[in-house]
Amino acid sequence: MSLPAFPRRVTIREVGLRDGLQSIATLVPTERKFEWIRDAVAAGQREIEVGSFVPPRLMPQLADTGQVLAFAKTLPGLRASVLVPNLRGAERALDGDADLMILPLSASHAHSLANLRKTPDDVVAELARIRAARDASGRKTLIEGGVGTAFGCTIQGRVEESEVLRLMQALLDAGADRVSLADTVGYADPGAVRRLFEKALKIAGERFCCGHFHDTRGLALVNVHAALQLGVDRFDASLAGIGGCPHAPGASGNASTEDLAFMLAAMGVDTGLDIEALLALRAKVAGWIDGEPTHGALWRAGLPKTFVAPAAVAAAA
Questions:
Q1: Concatenated DSSP letters for the chain?
Q2: Of residues 153, 209, 210, 245, which has the active-site annotation?
Q3: Residue 285: what pLDDT?
Q4: pTM tops 0.90
């Protein structure tokens, strides 16, 4: 079977301010988060997940999400998204005029109960309530249903592909504007990604929007490559590869933003990102969370002398 050409342009959604910070003990001050967002936008970032509307007692790292969202909304050209665990969180996202809110649904029944204290089908019902609230508010905030533990779970183990696809269809039927798939614990491999994403794309079509891969076992970038072969053109990543799920043991390390941007650029895929600026920001963030685990390879090795960004190649052509 012939595969479509790689997308010429790919969007990397920065999730370090939410997925990254939720899993570490260090509390990054609000002003530092503002600086992170400013520098990311200056480096070409146009989509950032700025936080999560969860109870501060559960995640004090994200207690200032309202303030961070308000700041992000002042920056022209930036699409600010937030994670919402329930209707109450969605109402706060709507009040803050978020561009996008992501409702996480775990295809693993055991993880869903540990993470949200709801079954997967309870989450589907919650999305329907969120859709009704969004429509009643008159806001244009998009709703993304994110299906996590799509390739397996450290609590439950195997997650059936048929269950992942059933839940994705249920989210669409309940009113999600778009859906995404996440390898929450780093169990995916390129073959599994191709098989599941191919079926997911047949279900969701253009409403399938994003792949989210953890680098727990070093496969995040090759899993991105497998999804690229199917035409997927948006991926989540976290600066310095920080992050994970507090309720999924062993779920360490997101795909590194700077490594992913470099891989795509080396392949001739435009992300709009200035990789040297990303590396400078990475150094800042690593300093702010000194002592916490970080990941990635590009910051150690540096850019090759032969590297030419896609925009520069196009300009020379």
A1: ---PPPPSB-EEEE-IIIIIGGGSS----HHHHHHHHHHHHHTT--EEEEEE---TTT-GGGTTHHHHHHHHTTSTT-EEEEE-SSHHHHHHHHHTT-SEEEEEEESSHHHHHHHHSS-HHHHHHHHHHHHHHHHHHT---EEEEEEESTT-BTTTB---HHHHHHHHHHHHHHT-SEEEEEETTS---HHHHHHHHHHHHHHHGGGEEEEEEB-TTS-HHHHHHHHHTTT--EEEEBGGG--B-TTSTT-B-BPBHHHHHHHHHHTT-B----HHHHHHHHHHHHHHTTTS----SHHHH---TT---HHHHHHH-
A2: 245
A3: 97
A4: yes
Is residue 245 flagged as an active site residue?
Answer: yes
Query: Which residues in the chain land under pLDDT 70?
Result: 1-4, 245-252, 311-317
